[in-house]
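Example record used in the benchmark description.
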Amino acid sequence: MVSPELHGDSRGFFYESWRQDQYAELGIGPEFVQDNHSRSSRGVLRGLHYQLSNPQGKLVRVLIGEIYDVIVDMRQSSPTFKQWTGVTLSAENHAMLWVPPGFAHGFQVVSDIAEIAYKCTAYYLPEDEQCLLWNDPGLAINWPISGSPALSDKDQQGKPLAAAPTYS
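Model output (structure tokens):
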């Protein structure tokens, strides 16, 4: 997770959401080729998505509201293969999450509304997209809102981790 230096006073705040030289020091140095922006309501769960032959790195931040953001390491060569991490990102904490290429990514909205912006290192290719099952017992992700989330048709068809394609 990245916490940018926030400059604020009674008028509001300012921070640099992307500065190549400083982020390169943190190991985030790719060229970004696409920016995305989404809006969702409470309980919506998007993911867990990844592209197999064209992996995307993502720098994710919340503009409005709050989400619980999850990444799953899909790289067989990694010591954290098949492990997940979850963090809270919000408009209030200004934190950002770096999702390296080779990770599945998803989030659940915990505020009434959330708007998310993220920079991507590769173009989105719908024919290349993979989806992990959000409630796979093999992952045992502790999502903050219990019960059945609002899911897209695609996300309802996610694969369990044991059957999902991975990176070598």
